[in-house]
Amino acid sequence: MFKSFASDNNAPVHPSIIKAIEEANRGDCLGYGDDELTKKAKEKFKELFGQDIDVAFVLTGTAANVLSLSSMLKPFEAVITAKTAHINIDECGAPERFTGCKIVTLPQKCGKITPKSIEKVLVGVGDEHHVQPKVVSITQATELGCVYTKEEIKEITSFAHKNNLLVHMDGSRISNAAVSLGLDFKEFTKDAGVDVLSFGGTKNGLMIAEAVIFFNKSLTKYVKFLHKQTMQLYSKMRYVSAQFLEYLSNDLWFQNAKNANDMAELLEREIRKIDKIKIIYPVEANEVFAVLPKEAVKKVQEKSFFYVVDERKGAVRWVTSFNTTKKDIMDFVKLIKDSLKG
After folding, report:
1. How much is the pLDDT for 2?
2. pLDDT digits (tens, 9 = 90+) for 281-298
3. With bands split at pLDDT 50, 70 and 90, how would you rate the model's confidence at 1?
4. What is the mean pLDDT of the chain?
5. Are 177 and 152 within 8 A, CB to CB?
6. Fewest CB within 10 angstroms: 38, 122, 191, 295, which?
7. Burial degree of 157 (CB within 10 A; 0-12, 13-18, 19+)
8. Residue 148: which of 171, 166, 164, 165 has the closest Cα?
9. Residues in CB range of 331: below 8 A, 6 or more apart
10. Sheet holding 132-139, edge to edge
11. Which domains are delineated in the chain?
């Protein structure tokens, strides 16, 4: 049986996380985040990012983005982001529905935007006939598998703040980005000027665990109400918190992300040896994008499912996970080679 390379969401929950949830499942405790595990998990985040932050736990990445943006925007304001951004493409309009705000999209390169591209849409400021730009949202790592450097993020946040804009980071694969950069989380988020961070866990071995980290505490006045209104104030929050405690206490986040990144790098190396396949974006985290003959796509998908991202070009996406092995990679590469022979 071949492993699927469709998404890191398809991977199982890490055994250590299952164990942490089981250990949390003992007796009664206060609900809605007033339990000791949630307090400890929030302290763990403060150890990573500093004491001057606020943390809200949620269940999904979309919820993290919606809660983040809801805290940052008024209904007549807009969020500026890459055309490829998850909040624009893959969240079924949830950010627009729950914030009432417009998403303004920009051209991108490997999923990245720049201050220069942002500047072009800063029009109609102060004019009541125009939606007012307010938030810049960047994804780390991007939807095309690339990673913003610390310097690139600082350039964006500096430009944004000079123009009275806030900066949100969608960090659904933030652990993969940290491993790729060789930096602590704080260095390319809080220290780089990000105001609010959606901190992902589900794609890296957790079950139902995402977090919103507020570095700009001026945005937290109504967060407890928004947390409830967005249907994310989970009554049994201890089970989410227990996951983050395990994840952040024992470098599990690093081990999981490093394996995923290493396996993507191995897959890239092996694919580059095949003449009929072209890698189309730099492989900087745990995603590999390639173009291969359309007839081969269907043959391989019959045994190992993955997503086609551009049917006209035959462009596909392969995603590695914390549990991907070298054997998985080599078996998959052989399957591709065999599909090209016919």
Report:
1. 87
2. 999 999 999 999 988 999
3. confident
4. 97
5. no
6. 295
7. buried
8. 171
9. 2, 3
10. 54-58, 210-214, 196-199, 166-171, 132-139, 77-82, 102-106
11. 14-249 (3.40.640.10), 253-341 (3.90.1150.10)
